[in-house]
Design brief:
By secondary structure, the protein is an alpha/beta fold. It has a domain of 81 residues. Helix content is 41%, strand content 11%. It has an eight-stranded parallel beta sheet. Strand 3, helix 3 and strand 4 form a beta-alpha-beta unit. It is globular, with a radius of gyration of 19 Å.
Length: 310
């Protein structure tokens, strides 16, 4: 296990949205109950579109709570209610709104000492994705939107930006080959700071004829050296959900720490952040199981990673 201790573990705060709201509650449940000192904050807790005094007040409270509990926000990304067209929206004024919105996210991240922010590269409508001319034009426009945000991020001391490969073509990066090609194209664009992929081992196009595209270990290995953050969850063959690493799901799950870390090592990863991105339905008993399931998942990974408290 010593070979793997360069890897850190974090928790994406998606499952806490609506279940907690006060910054002090969010941080204390993560640190004191779940047992994690690193977390990926989602925008629902501090939304850049809120009034500036509100954003500042909640950011200050979040920073104070993190300092009290010795916790670190490792990045900020859009959350469960932010899976939108953003930079691939067909309307220019909507795109402009989101450029400013993400600059606001940059400011929040900088004030919290988080080194990175991200979202999807851009989500296309059926019409825009299915028309090659419209798609190519919007791809170039989206990259320029990222460039604008990157300029502001560089000025605020952000280390890098990230985009999340998804599972269908119009959300981009849905196969290993397409994801690699898009990343190569982004890098050729010469943004002011890096825009890197943040892969999810349970994403990938289930209709692809290439079995690697739905193989979590293939994604981990092929992007280990390019994806500083890797979203993880327990995976099943049907990719049916963002399952936790609990005894119930580990029995039939495909992911074990030893095998996943071996794949990342084989791909050249040395200090990746493994981020638990889980989801729980708003139904009982799932709704009230969130904290216990996250705690069990963190404990499952703690012998293999740095949690901030081990």
């Amino acid at each position: 296990m010593g070979l793997c201790m360069g890897f850190s573990l974090s928790v994406n705060t998606n499952p806490l949205v609506n279940r907690f709201a006060e910054p002090e509650d969010v941080v204390s449940v993560l640190t004191d109950e779940i047992g994690i000192g690193h977390f990926q904050l989602v925008h629902e807790f501090i939304n850049p579109s809120w009034a500036a005094p509100t954003v500042k007040r909640l950011t200050d409270r979040m920073a104070k709570a993190c300092a009290k509990h010795r916790a670190k926000i490792t990045s900020i990304m859009t959350g469960p209610y932010g899976r939108l067209n953003h930079f691939a929206h067909p309307d220019a004024e909507v795109r402009d709104y989101y450029v400013d919105w993400f600059k606001g996210m940059v400011d929040i991240a900088a004030d919290l000492g988080a080194p990175a922010i991200g979202t999807q590269f851009g989500i296309f409508t059926f019409r825009d994705y299915d028309d090659p001319v419209r798609r190519e034009g919007l791809m170039r426009i989206a990259l320029e939107c990222w460039r604008d945000v990157a300029r502001h991020a560089k000025a605020r001391g952000i280390s890098y930006l990230f985009w999340e490969p998804m599972s269908v073509g119009r959300e981009l990066g849905h196969t290993i080959k397409e994801c690699q090609a898009l990343q190569n194209w982004i890098e050729a664009g010469g943004l002011p700071i890096s825009l890197k992929p943040m892969i999810d081992i349970d994403h990938g196009d289930v209709t692809s004829p290439d079995p690697a595209d739905t193989d979590p270990y293939a994604w981990a290995k092929d992007f280990a050296a390019r994806s500083p953050i890797i979203h993880i969850k327990q995976s099943t063959m049907n990719k049916g959900g963002h399952w936790p690493f609990t005894s119930r799901y580990n029995r039939d799950g495909r992911i074990t720490p030893e095998k996943l870390l071996a794949a990342i090592n084989a791909g050249g990863g040395i200090d990746n952040e493994l981020c638990l991105e889980l989801a729980f339905r708003e139904r009982e008993p799932s709704d009230r199981s969130v904290v216990a399931a996250l705690k069990e998942s963190v404990a499952y990974w703690a012998p293999y990673t740095r949690t901030g408290y081990n």
